[in-house]
């Protein structure tokens, strides 16, 4: 490494796209900065010793009260644009889960609200979550 190069701290996260069979997506309203008050996909940091898939299951339960097993999640992809998060470099692995209409949701953890939104009428989304959602539903 040269003197002009610096080490970059990279944080590992996961996001979950939950859609219903009738065309709705689960979004949470963020209770913390960055993007406090904006709508986002459920997700968060991968803990030490945890896989991204297991973190996705945990975060989905903590933030939205939706319970799934790891094998129910389908990996959508990895999102690692350097500027995707204003806090620094975050790399996320996104997963998709399909549920039946009427699946109950309840905000928890750092979410102030959890709500089903029609895929055809979404609010502005935090981070690059619109891109992640598009990748999952394309």
What do you see in this structure?
With 138 residues, this protein is an alpha+beta fold. It has one domain: Nucleoside Triphosphate Pyrophosphohydrolase, CATH 3.90.79.10. It contains two helices and seven strands. The strands form two sheets. The protein has a four-stranded mixed beta sheet with strand order 4-1-6-5, with helices on both faces. The protein has a three-stranded antiparallel beta sheet with strand order 3-2-7, with no helix packed on it. A hairpin with an 8-residue loop joins β2 and β3. The protein is globular. The chain starts with 9 loop residues before the first strand and ends with a helix.
Overview in brief:
With 138 residues, the chain is α+β, with helices and mostly antiparallel strands.
Give the topology.
Elements: E1 10-20, E2 24-30, E3 39-40, E4 43-45, H1 52-64, E5 74-79, E6 89-99, E7 111-118, H2 129-137
Any descriptors?
7 strands; globular; 2 helices; alpha+beta; 138 residues; Nucleoside Triphosphate Pyrophosphohydrolase; 16% helix; 35% strand
Please indicate the count of domains: 1
Report the β-strand fraction as a percent range: 25-35%
Element string (H = helix, E = strand): EEEEHEEEH
| Estimated structural class | alpha+beta
Overall strand count: 7
Write the CATH fold name.
Nucleoside Triphosphate Pyrophosphohydrolase
CATH homology superfamily name: Nucleoside Triphosphate Pyrophosphohydrolase
Helicity range: 10-25%
Distance linking N and C termini? 41 Å
Whole-number mean pLDDT: 96
CATH-defined architecture:
Alpha-Beta Complex
CATH class: Alpha Beta
In which order are the strands of the major sheet placed? Answer: 4-1-6-5
What ranges have pLDDT less than 50 throughout 5 or more consecutive residues?
Answer: none
Shape: globular
Radius of gyration, in Å, reads 15 Å
């Amino acid at each position: 490494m040269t003197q002009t190069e610096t080490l970059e701290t990279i944080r590992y996260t996961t996001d979950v796209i939950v859609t219903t069979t009738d065309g709705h997506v689960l979004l949470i309203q963020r209770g913390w900065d960055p993007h406090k008050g904006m709508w986002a996909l459920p997700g968060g940091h991968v803990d030490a010793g945890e896989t991204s898939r297991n973190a996705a299951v945990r975060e989905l339960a903590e933030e939205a009260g939706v319970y799934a097993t790891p094998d129910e999640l389908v990996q959508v992809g990895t999102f690692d644009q350097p500027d995707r998060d204003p806090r620094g470099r975050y790399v996320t692995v996104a997963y998709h889960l399909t549920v039946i209409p009427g699946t109950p949701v309840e905000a928890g953890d750092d979410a102030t609200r959890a709500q089903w939104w029609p895929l055809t009428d979404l609010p502005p989304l935090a981070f690059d979550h619109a891109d992640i959602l598009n990748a999952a539903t394309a």
